[in-house]
C-alpha cells in the first residue's frame, strides 16, 4: 500500500499495463490497445472475404428493411419542422425568399479553427497480392523500405501489365480497407456487430459471425499490437462490453478470447462503469452516443444501477444518413449515385462530412464542402457544393423520428434462450451466501453473489429498446433511481461519451433539453454535462485499462484452463455448464 501512495499513475500503467490488452468492441469500430498506451487503435469492425470470381461486392447484412414508409416519411417531415422552429430556420418546404427569419450563414469556406476538416477523397482498396519476387527482383529488403509509393506507381506500362498478370486476390481484407473495396470486386463484406448485438441472422449464421470475429481480432493482435500466437499466453485481456450485450454474446466472446486467441485470463467490465473510471469519477449518468446505438446508465459510487439502463436504437450513422436525406430534399446534393448500403465507401464519406460540418446552433447553417462520387473502380470524382441545414441532422438525437433507423434483423428469439446445457442444472439450485461481507464484495469462489438478486443478466429475449428521444431517456433514467439527493447529483454529473459526443453545440443542447424535460413537480433546477478529460470515443477503453491495472487481487478474472475445463464440453461444440458460477466470476466486478 505504501508503494501505491508514492507511485506516479503513468508509471503504474507502464509497469502493470504492458501485458494487459484492453478490447472495447462496438457496432462500427473496435478499440484495442495495451493498457500502458495513451490511446487505442480504432478499427472499423468489419471483414471482407473473397467470393466467386464472377460475383460483385456483396454486403452480408444488405437484406434489411431500408424502405421508408409513407407514415415514417410524414413523421420525419413533421420532426424536421419542429426542429426548424427551435433553431429559427425555414420549415422543410418553405422557400427562404418568402421567410422573414433573418438569415445567419456559416462561413462559406466551411472553416472552423477548432475542427480539422478533411476534404480528401478515399481511395479504392488494392485487392491484389503482388508477387514481389517477379515484380521487383533486383531490390533488397532494405531498399524496399525506403522506396516511396510514387516511384512504384511511375513504372512503365509494360512492367505494370506483367505485374498485374501475376497478381492474386487477397483472400481476406480487414477494417477500413474492407469498407473501401470497389462494388465491382468479388468480395463479401460482413459487419460483425449491428445495433449493439452480434450481427446474427438467417443470412449470417452464428458460427460464421464468430469465425469472422476471431479472424479480425487475431489480425489486430498480430498487425497492430504485434503479439504473435506463441506469446499470447503471457497476456491477459480486459473486455469492455456495451450495455446492449446479452449473456450469451459475452460468453461466446469470452470463448474466443480464452479458447481461440489463447489469452491466459480475462475479465469483463461494463462500458458505462468503465467510462466513469476513465474520467476519474465515481458517480455519473453515462450517456454513450455510438455509431448505431445510444445508451444511458447511472453509476453510483462505482456501482452500476441496472434499473436505470436505457437503450436507444440510433446513433452517429443515422445522423449521417439523415444528412444525405436533408441535402437531397433541398436539392443541394450533386447528381451522383450515393448508396451507403451497396457502397460502404459512401458511408465513410458521409461520416466525414457529418463530423466536419454538422453542429447544433441557432440560425441557418450552410457551408461549402467537397463531395466525392465513387463509381466502380474509377478514381473519385470531386463536386464542390453548398450544404444547407447542417444543424438539423444532429437534432435527431432529441427527435428520433427524423432519423428513421434501418431495421436490421435481430438474432432468432431462440438464440437468446441460452439453454444449451447452460442454465438447466444451476438455475434452481440453492447457493451458499456469506453474511459477513458487504453486498457486491463476495469473492469469486462463492457463486452466491447478492448482485444477482437485482441484476437481470439472464434475459430470454433481446434487451428492450426505448422509443424516445435522448433528453427523455436521460431524464427517465435518472428519475428511476427514486432518491432526490442522488437525482440532483446525477443531473449535475451527466457524462457524454462516444463519437457523437464530439458534435459541436451538443453539450448546451443536452443541458437545455433535459432541463425542459424534467417534470415541473420535481425539485430539480440544475442540469450540467461534465467535460470529458480525454477523447469521448476512448473514455470506456481508458477506464477498462485503469480498472485492469488497479485490480491487484484479480479475484474476478477467468483463467483459460478453468474456462475450457469447466465452461465448455470439449468435442461437442460451444456448450457450457455451470453457467451461473462462470458468469458470477466474469461479471462480479461490474457492480463492485
UniProtKB/TrEMBL annotation:
Species in which this protein is naturally found: Hibiscus trionum (Flower of an hour)
Family statement drawn from the similarity comment of this UniProt entry: Belongs to the actin family. ARP8 subfamily.
Descriptive protein name: Actin-related protein 9
Pfam families to which the protein is assigned, alphabetical: Actin
Renumbered residue ranges of the record's region Disordered: 134-163
Bias-annotated ranges (Low complexity): 143-152
Transmembrane segments: none
CDD domains in the cross-refs: ASKHA_NBD_Arp8-like (cd10206)
InterPro entries: Actin, ATPase_NBD
